[in-house]
Amino acid sequence: MSKTRQGLAMSLKPKHYDLEAWKEAMRLARQLYEATQAMPESERFGLCLQMRRSAVSIASNIAEGAGRGTKAEFRRYAQIARGSLTELDTQIWIASDMKLIERTPQIVDRLTLVFRLLNGLISQKSAKSKL
Questions:
Q1: Tens of each residue's pLDDT in the chain, 131 residues
Q2: What integer pLDDT is reported at residue 14 of this predicted model?
Q3: d(Cα 102, Cα 100) in Å, to the nearest integer?
Q4: Are 33 and 55 within 8 A, CB to CB?
Q5: Which of 21, 40, 98, 105 is at a distance of 20 to 30 A from 124, taking alpha carbons?
Q6: DSSP 99
Q7: Domains and CATH numbers, the chain
Q8: Dihedral through CA 113, CA 117, CA 84, CA 62, nearest 10?
């Protein structure tokens, strides 16, 4: 962990740092970046970029929702993150069908785990009171 990130974690401790959904979404983003490294140059600004943006969007929306302050807003951003996750799943299928990446059990397991964790957050944050 970088000093800046450590400093933020120690001084402010944003709520998303403790969320398993955020931690797993971060791992998924790293996995996707690694999986797309070997994609051909012709896909650098196409499917590869779209997949990376979707992966980053998942963790980012979880963090943004946690920082918003109300359960309703958190739920809304968790739903957006879930939408990005299903978008990423489709992009992985497309890339796999085109033989650009392998749809590995590790990626599938992480997608499934993040989906389950997001569904849990969405259910948990169904009330409109403060976090």
A1: 566 666 555 556 678 999 999 999 999 999 999 999 999 999 888 999 999 999 999 999 999 999 998 899 999 999 999 999 999 999 999 999 999 999 999 999 999 999 999 999 999 877 544 44
A2: 78
A3: 7
A4: yes
A5: 105
A6: T
A7: 20-124 (1.20.1440.60)
A8: -130
